[in-house]
Amino acid sequence: MDELLDYDEAMALFDPVLGLEVHVELNTASKMFCGCANHFGAEPNSNTCPVCLGLPGALPAVNATAIESAIRIGLSLNCDIATWCRFARKNYFYPDMTKDFQTSQYDEPLCFEGHVDVEVDGRTFRIAVERAHMEEDAGKLVHAGASGRIHGADYSLVDYNRAGTPLIEIVTKPVRGTGSMAPQVAKAYVAALRDTMRALGVSDVKMEQGSLRCDANVSLMPKGSDVLGTRTETKNVNSLRSIEAALTYEIRRQAAILACGGRVKQETRMWHEEGYTTAGRSKEEAEDYRYFPEPDLVPVAPSREWVEQLRSTLPENPAAKRVRLAAEWGMTEREFGDVLAADALDLIEATVAAGASPASARKWWLGELARVANAEGVELAAVGLTPAQVAEVQGLVDGGVVNDKLARQVIEGVLAGEGSPAEVVERRGLKVVSDDGALSAAVDAAIAADPDAAAKIRDGKVAAAGALIGSVMKAMRGQADAGRVRELILEKLS
């Protein structure tokens, strides 16, 4: 295992410098340079053609929607948009790219010189974006073996479905001045990019599926120095928590080496979810990718009119939207923080738009539905209930058709495929009983069964009504109107 320096000790000796490269897969219908379906989860090698397989004589054509998405991304990151740029061939041995080069952008990115502001613990950090350029993704290697990694694998299989997927790579300039907050700032930055892509609708940004992933670079400078240290690049980190943890580990590892007079090797590192990084390949010497302009593609030259038209389609800034919704919904900082932590903001917003109050929408998504999601090991958005259905459930509660307890059974029925919330109520017979005749008989039975509680109520101890209400609710399988039951008890015993 690596020697690690205590984090606080590391921060007393060194200043971290970050460099973040975030890859975003676009959700266009087809791939970047061919007409193959751009769809995650298809049968291996089923979404392929001569172009994305690099067969001789196959000619690429640029996906116009991908260009549009890239420009909208650049505008959202406060970038300048090039008036003219080209694609280039990046020559490299790609075992998962049959043509052995990647079509990318080299010295002429479409989007450049932008910035993103993020807030961490009340401080605002401006992250300078050097470039956001277009390229195609590589395929995927599947390593057969217990570890699922190339080390120790019996053999490897190649799935070319992902090869040619439209990709935007967003590269920061060196990020200085974050101090001990560097890992949290990196996490907040990637979270901000994820929220922006989701708001734009250009990617599903599912980090666990690789549609958004981060290469996290970090180096250390001795306190008081302005000379950049040797960096390492932790590749393809695919969760926000892991970005923070991987950078924290690398800072401690590098600090331990430097504090003992050693030298950090410039290399890629692999992040292991157990909580550590391991060496990948050396990057101590500059690699010659032999870039040259792609001869089979025409340059991209977006008109200023088109760029401004796309600017007009940009959604509300996610950070500004959060501030607005928190105020409109009247939630405390802690309540709203819980919404963000659960990744439930969009779900609650859609539920409110469907007619529920913010408080009730938050109650269902962070309560019963979060419990279901945790039990099934899925994201909250994948539990199987739509915001409109949640709003309908709450409408049944507001209308006195069901109470909260019965509403949970309604949700259970909807998730089981028994129909809409209203249909589940009818099929399961879940309506609240508010008929005075039935309730009065149940109240009389409860009073007879618990004379002590009845005596206390007659003596003015109204709180004792809770026991009788509980008895009635139990007898009527939770379907009694609790408010009316209380009224009848007090009427009979006053």
Automatic annotation (TrEMBL):
<dbReference type="Pfam" id="PF02934">
    <property type="entry name" value="GatB_N"/>
</dbReference>
<protein>
    <recommendedName>
        <fullName>Aspartyl/glutamyl-tRNA(Asn/Gln) amidotransferase subunit B</fullName>
        <ecNumber>6.3.5.-</ecNumber>
    </recommendedName>
</protein>
<comment type="similarity">
    <text>Belongs to the GatB/GatE family. GatB subfamily.</text>
</comment>
<dbReference type="GO" id="GO:0050566">
    <property type="term" value="F:asparaginyl-tRNA synthase (glutamine-hydrolyzing) activity"/>
</dbReference>
<keyword id="KW-0547">Nucleotide-binding</keyword>
<feature type="domain" description="Asn/Gln amidotransferase">
    <location>
        <begin position="346"/>
        <end position="493"/>
    </location>
</feature>
<dbReference type="InterPro" id="IPR018027">
    <property type="entry name" value="Asn/Gln_amidotransferase"/>
</dbReference>
<dbReference type="GO" id="GO:0005524">
    <property type="term" value="F:ATP binding"/>
</dbReference>
<dbReference type="InterPro" id="IPR004413">
    <property type="entry name" value="GatB"/>
</dbReference>
<dbReference type="GO" id="GO:0016740">
    <property type="term" value="F:transferase activity"/>
</dbReference>
<comment type="subunit">
    <text>Heterotrimer of A, B and C subunits.</text>
</comment>
<dbReference type="GO" id="GO:0070681">
    <property type="term" value="P:glutaminyl-tRNAGln biosynthesis via transamidation"/>
</dbReference>
<dbReference type="InterPro" id="IPR023168">
    <property type="entry name" value="GatB_Yqey_C_2"/>
</dbReference>
<dbReference type="InterPro" id="IPR014746">
    <property type="entry name" value="Gln_synth/guanido_kin_cat_dom"/>
</dbReference>
<keyword id="KW-0648">Protein biosynthesis</keyword>
<dbReference type="GO" id="GO:0006412">
    <property type="term" value="P:translation"/>
</dbReference>
<comment type="function">
    <text>Allows the formation of correctly charged Asn-tRNA(Asn) or Gln-tRNA(Gln) through the transamidation of misacylated Asp-tRNA(Asn) or Glu-tRNA(Gln) in organisms which lack either or both of asparaginyl-tRNA or glutaminyl-tRNA synthetases. The reaction takes place in the presence of glutamine and ATP through an activated phospho-Asp-tRNA(Asn) or phospho-Glu-tRNA(Gln).</text>
</comment>
<keyword id="KW-0808">Transferase</keyword>
<keyword id="KW-0436">Ligase</keyword>
<keyword id="KW-0067">ATP-binding</keyword>
<dbReference type="InterPro" id="IPR017959">
    <property type="entry name" value="Asn/Gln-tRNA_amidoTrfase_suB/E"/>
</dbReference>
<dbReference type="GO" id="GO:0050567">
    <property type="term" value="F:glutaminyl-tRNA synthase (glutamine-hydrolyzing) activity"/>
</dbReference>
<dbReference type="InterPro" id="IPR006075">
    <property type="entry name" value="Asn/Gln-tRNA_Trfase_suB/E_cat"/>
</dbReference>
<dbReference type="InterPro" id="IPR017958">
    <property type="entry name" value="Gln-tRNA_amidoTrfase_suB_CS"/>
</dbReference>
<dbReference type="Pfam" id="PF02637">
    <property type="entry name" value="GatB_Yqey"/>
</dbReference>
<dbReference type="InterPro" id="IPR003789">
    <property type="entry name" value="Asn/Gln_tRNA_amidoTrase-B-like"/>
</dbReference>
